Amino acid sequence: MGLCKLSDSLPMWQMHGGLPKLEFDVGSVGAREREHAWASIMRHCFYDFSTSYPVAFHDGQISCSRVGPVCNATFTSDPMTASRESTHIARDPQDHYFVVMPGEGALSMRQRGRQAVIRQGEMTLVSTALPYVYQQVTRETFRVMMVPGATVRAHCVGIDDFAAIRFPSSGLVRLFLDFASSLQKYASELPADAASGLSEHLCELLALVVAGADHESSESSVRFAHRRRALALVESRFSDPEFSPAVIARALRISARYLQRIFAENGETPLGVIRRRRIAEACLLLDKRGRNRGTIAEIAYAVGFNDPAYFSRMFRAESGASPSDYTRQ
User: Fold this and answer.
1) How many CB atoms lie within 10 A of CB 310?
2) What domains does the chain contain, in order, with CATH numbers?
3) Taking the CB of residue 119, how many other CB atoms lie within 10 A of it?
4) Could you tell me the maximum CA-CA distance found in the chain, to the nearest angstrom?
5) Tens-digit pLDDT profile for residues 265-321
6) How far apart are alpha carbons 37 and 27 in whole angstroms?
7) Under a CB-based contact definition with an 8 Å cutoff, are residues 128 and 97 in contact?
8) Which of 13, 35, 247, 291 has CA atoms 20 to 30 A from the CA of 41?
9) Among candidate residues 217, 224, 236, the one with its CA nearest the CA of residue 154
10) Contacts for 37 with CB less than 8 Å, ≥ 6 apart
11) Dist CA 307 CA 203 (whole Å)
């Protein structure tokens, strides 16, 4: 996880019961330093993004813990806006889903042209691999959870269709909120070998919440089912250089034109979805390049590109940097 450079006055992760935990109160630093300190501690806990404040920032507390690959946090914060943009993603690529659960008041999340305003007892999520905007206009208390993207997608193909969608209070949503709260509350008491299993259960429960919201999709049930099957094929076969929209259409026994229409309803194309998935995987491999010494050409072939030069052009178009520049950054 990309960490910003913190001053000595800000805390680092501590071990509690074998699991890492961090607590911070912005009141522990001088008034002039609080806005910077708050932005720094949030980037330290999560990833790179920018913050802005409608009024002078005075009050902010965070309690953050890690259970296996899942990061849990409870915030109390003065009004603020947090934006993750393409430049942040290029500097600090993350493939996670950020689940937001208000405790009081209302919060707003925007992504992929959608906006969700959520209140206590509700929840929403966004992908950290795509730009988004979070906003709170009053002092609020809320919980957040960051879950690895690959783990979530293994249980819930097509979850990006539910980014910035409001999940209203229901039995499944309340069950998820209670489980998330308990996971954070007892994190310091959990044996380390139980953390990964509990994280897996959390993703299974999140998949049930998303499945229960299918009826709110604007797509017909038939098109929605086709889209989920198509995305499952992309996830399992994107590294095959012969994989293409035509392969998806044949596997689903639908026409290429109909497949295009299904994805167009979300402002996408089948080829664009395949390419974006390949580039996301390339980012992960480039992050490890210093350890495995793989060449850029080898990475291009590994994620399904036949032509390294074409891979470099597509990588720059998606990330804003060449593969070599990305590795140096």
Assistant:
1) 11
2) 14-216 (2.60.120.10), 221-328 (1.10.10.60)
3) 14
4) 64
5) 777 899 999 998 999 888 888 877 655 567 899 999 999 999 999 999 999 888 778
6) 10
7) yes
8) 291
9) 236
10) 7, 9, 10, 26, 29
11) 36
